[in-house]
Design goal:
Elements (H helix, E strand, L loop, with lengths): L5 H17 L16 H9 L27 E4 L2 E4 H5 L3 H10 L2 H31 L3 H22 L4 H10 L4 H21 L9 H10 L1 H4 L4 E10 L5 E4 L5 E4 L1 H13 L4 H8 L10 E6 L8 H7 L11 E2 L3 E11 L10 H26 L3 E2 L3 H11 L7
Antiparallel strand pairs: 1-2, 1-9, 3-6, 3-8, 4-5, 7-8
Helix pairs in contact: 1-8, 2-14, 5-8, 6-8, 11-12
């Protein structure tokens, strides 16, 4: 659960309105002080962390310590509650494995440090929020909350696993989890969401048009999106073992990579499905998915795939390239959907701008709350770069160049 996701918590408000009533909660915090006068302070706070934050800069820590530095560790404690390296890695391990295959090693290293540094900070802050929220939860409220957890589990089973709980449990097992652990995860999230809705969510206010315009001007670059294209790729390495086919005379004939690539392109020219051909001929990263890489930007791939990317961005949607010979492989590219990117327009983006502005205001208030909780917390180890190094060392390694 990521406490900085306003859209997630704003969406929770309606669902939790009935929960709050059903649990006969004590008086909630309303708006206090002049919130409008503090908006600018909240904006600045949400964009720049206070100096006392022990987690600020954790993602900038090197993973190659000097000999004088203490060794890395694979567990940290927040008020005595353990956070293990696997707690940080589990939700993003598959994502990291995919990026390790395609990103240049140096870029991947930066990506890992940034992502895992953010995960550590978020996980630690969520523990602080959960610990504080739990103190306010009465026994009868906890029982009512369990009913909502049951409802949420049924929703997941019905929507994501065709109504079969065994599928849900198998999916959890593949991720190293279980139904019991996932129920606890959902319960913890609900406790924190309820707490934030009470203490923060109700204080978020709508921006004025002037404030919205200022936000737009300040974040115009962030609101733009680069052009992307959907890549389908057949990849046949030149150093691949020779394939063999059986002739009518029952003799096996070895085929080189160039011959295989030519056969694949010939089948496509005769109307064969690109995904089927990719699954039979390609040895690339996504061969099993029919060569589907999803949407990519022009500069998102390692150098060895650049000839394929250059071809992709010169094609029309649905077009299939000729055979492309690169330094160490043959490529055939199909261009899927084209995303032209986005140049921000104030009038057209006002609903999104309002959402982002409210999210920023919400984040500032949550950060203020977390800063207060951190001031009373015991965090170990004190050198958080040690834990970051331990988590990074346990992450998937980049592919060989």
């Amino acid at each position: 659960m990521t406490h900085v996701e306003w859209s997630r918590h704003a969406g929770v408000a309606a669902a939790f309105a009935s929960l709050l009533l059903a649990m006969t909660l004590p008086g909630c915090l309303g708006a206090h002080g002049d919130v409008k006068a503090r908006r600018e302070d909240l904006r600045k706070q949400s964009e720049s962390q206070r100096p006392t934050d022990p987690f600020r800069g954790v993602s900038d820590a090197t993973t190659k310590p000097e000999s004088s530095e203490p060794p890395p560790v694979t567990v940290m404690f927040v008020n005595g509650e353990a956070i293990h390296a696997e707690d940080i890695l589990r939700p993003v391990r598959d994502q990291l494995a995919r990026q390790a295959e395609t990103m240049p090693a140096q870029q991947y290293r930066r990506y890992v440090i940034d992502l895992l540094g953010t995960r550590i900070r978020t996980e630690a802050h969520d523990r602080l929020l959960y610990q504080e929220a739990s103190k306010r939860l009465k026994e009868e409220e906890g029982k009512k909350l369990d009913e909502f957890v049951d409802t949420r589990v049924r929703e997941i089973v019905n929507k994501e696993h065709q109504g079969r709980q065994t599928r849900y449990e198998k999916a959890l097992a593949r991720k190293g989890s279980s139904l019991e652990k996932d129920r606890e995860r959902i319960r913890r999230e609900m406790i924190v969401q309820r707490y934030l809705y009470q203490t923060v969510g109700r204080r978020v206010q709508e921006p004025t048009r002037h404030e919205l315009w200022q936000y737009f001007e300040q974040h115009k670059n962030d609101l733009s999106k680069p052009p992307r294209r959907e890549l389908f790729l057949i990849e046949i390495p030149k150093n691949a073992p020779l394939a063999a086919v059986t002739t009518q005379g029952s003799q096996e004939v070895p085929l080189s990579a160039s011959t295989l690539a030519g056969l694949a392109r010939s089948e496509l020219a005769n109307g064969a499905d690109f995904g089927d051909v990719a699954r039979r001929y390609s040895t690339g990263v996504h061969a099993a998915e029919g060569g589907a890489w999803g949407f990519i930007a022009r500069d998102a791939m390692r150098e060895r795939w650049q000839p394929a990317v250059d071809a992709l961005f010169a094609m029309e949607s649905g077009q299939v390239s000729d055979l492309i010979e690169a330094t160490d492989a043959y490529f055939i590219v199909r261009c899927g959907q084209i995303d032209a990117g986005l140049e921000p327009d104030f009038a057209a983006m006002q609903p999104e701008l309002i959402r982002r502005y409210r999210e920023q205001q919400f984040n500032g208030m949550v950060e203020e709350l977390v800063t207060e909780l951190r001031g009373k917390a015991t965090i170990e180890p004190k050198e958080l770069s040690r834990f970051l190094r331990g988590v990074v060392e346990a992450a998937p390694a980049p592919a060989e160049p």
